[in-house]
């Protein structure tokens, strides 16, 4: 057993212990009385600290370094154990890959931790540029292992999340190698910005989750009030995103337009419920109440800057391309682009979904009606974009045709939608 004892003693414990302690301290920051309310719980040792261990430690110690931080988190014990195992496997895979590649490609040029004879001076570190390729492959290995164990995030999202921390970890490990004593201070100087980046990323995820929850709550409020059009907002958001994708808009604007479509009818919250749920034709006063819902919607969302284009869409989605719409009578390109997109998406879903007074139209028939009204009611470019997008992706909300029941009374004549004009307006 003396050989085992010597091997254990030769391991780089002076590098492992600071990393393990740092990981545990990072994990405890959300519980700190001074900083706790400002630190998202997701901000943990995973990230630059983990990759520093991957590039600095042998695989066995690299796997153990993130364990203290993972086990000291807030989730239930079972969840913490799964998280610890995930980090162990990810770190071990990356460290083994990095060590294998550096030993094979660089030989003794790179001072691998624990590999030098304690009685000899540590060899000089290989230039950072020489280790970049093995480090990149190690980061890819970590990303693949994390994706296999982690679940729902896409491969590209996992990779983009790993690359910045991989670079910071490589810089920290290189500084630590250069001067094992003072090098710790240099490594900390690199790791501190990495932790701050992790903090900011976790905070942005919180804000994004809060944004999505707010939108979902507002949409649900509209659906609960206007039960006849339940699900309409979600479908309009999907159609608006299809149009945005066909126009080549970036992911951020596509998301904004999906939100705009989902919230376009938010003003109905201010319309009397008896008017929204009235079975028969509306009188003049009720019709005016319905026509004011874009202005009500604008008043509700204009104070929420994060909603962006949804504010314009809420106010102007009933404008007509020829200037005959409401509430402002805008025409052509004076109508905000988001509103022109949502107007087409809104009308399309209104025609292809079943209402209390009429059955859904087939997708082809609805598109034909949109084309007929292009240039007068709708922007022809948005109509063409929706048509192309549906040819490419289809419409997932298509309703199955209803069979007529033998002996049933014929359906009554359709009653126009409260906010429908002749044509395809919805």
Largest sheet: none
**Class by helix and strand content?**
mainly alpha
Counting DSSP H or I runs of 4 or more residues, the number of helices is 18
Count of beta strands? 0
What is the arithmetic mean of pLDDT?
75
Give the CA-based shape: elongated
The N- to C-terminal Cα distance equals 82 Å
**Radius of gyration from the alpha-carbon trace, in angstroms:** 30 Å
Low-pLDDT sequence parts: 41-45, 108-125, 401-426
Order of secondary-structure elements? HHHHHHHHHHHHHHHHHH
Amount of beta strand: under 5%
Task: State the helical fraction.
Answer: 55-70%
Give the topology.
Blueprint: H1 2-10, H2 13-28, H3 48-56, H4 59-64, H5 67-71, H6 77-106, H7 128-150, H8 155-178, H9 183-225, H10 232-246, H11 251-262, H12 273-276, H13 284-291, H14 293-301, H15 309-316, H16 337-352, H17 363-373, H18 380-393
Helix pairs in contact: 2-3, 3-6, 3-8, 6-7, 7-8, 8-9, 10-11, 10-16, 10-18, 11-15, 14-15, 15-16, 16-17
Describe this structure as you would to a colleague:
The protein is mainly alpha-helical and 426 residues long. It has 18 helices and no strands.
């Amino acid at each position: 057993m003396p050989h085992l004892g010597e091997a254990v003693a030769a391991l780089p414990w002076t590098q492992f212990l600071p990393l393990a302690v740092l990981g545990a301290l990072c994990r405890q920051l959300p519980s700190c009385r001074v900083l706790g309310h400002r630190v998202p719980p997701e901000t943990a040792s995973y990230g630059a600290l983990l990759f520093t261990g991957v590039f600095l430690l042998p695989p066995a110690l690299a796997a153990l370094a993130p364990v203290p931080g993972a086990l000291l988190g807030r989730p239930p014990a079972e969840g913490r154990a799964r998280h610890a195992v995930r980090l162990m496997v990810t770190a071990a895979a990356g460290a083994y890959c990095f060590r294998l590649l550096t030993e094979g490609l660089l030989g003794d040029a790179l001072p691998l931790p624990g590999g030098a004879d304690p009685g000899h001076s540590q060899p000089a570190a290989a230039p950072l540029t020489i280790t970049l390729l093995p480090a990149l492959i190690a980061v890819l290995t970590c990303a693949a292992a994390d994706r296999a164990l982690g679940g729902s995030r896409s491969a590209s999202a996992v990779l983009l999340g790993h690359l910045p921390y991989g670079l910071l970890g490589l810089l920290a490990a290189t500084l630590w190698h250069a001067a094992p004593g003072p090098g710790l201070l240099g490594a900390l100087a690199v790791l501190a910005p990495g932790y701050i980046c992790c903090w900011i990323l976790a905070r942005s995820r919180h804000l994004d989750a809060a944004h999505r929850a707010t939108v979902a709550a507002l949409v649900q409020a509209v659906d609960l009030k206007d039960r006849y059009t339940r699900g309409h907002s979600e479908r309009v958001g999907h159609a608006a995103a299809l149009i945005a994708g066909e126009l080549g808009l970036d992911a951020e604007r596509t998301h904004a337009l999906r939100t705009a479509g989902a919230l376009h009818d938010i003003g109905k919250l201010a319309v009397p419920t008896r008017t929204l749920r009235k079975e028969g034709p509306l009188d003049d006063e009720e019709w005016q109440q319905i026509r004011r819902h874009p202005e009500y919607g604008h008043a509700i969302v204009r104070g929420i800057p994060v909603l962006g284009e949804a504010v314009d869409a809420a106010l102007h989605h009933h404008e007509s391309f020829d200037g005959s719409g409401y509430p402002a009578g805008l025409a052509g390109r004076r109508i905000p682009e988001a509103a022109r997109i949502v107007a087409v998406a809104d009308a399309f879903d209104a025609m292809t979904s079943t209402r209390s007074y009429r059955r859904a139209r087939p997708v082809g028939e609805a598109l034909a009606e949109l084309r007929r009204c292009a240039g007068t009611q709708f922007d022809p470019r948005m109509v063409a974009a929706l048509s192309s997008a549906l040819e490419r992706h289809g419409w997932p909300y298509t309703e199955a045709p209803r069979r007529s029941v033998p002996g049933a009374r014929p359906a009554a004549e359709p009653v126009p939608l409260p906010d429908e004009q002749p044509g395809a307006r919805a």
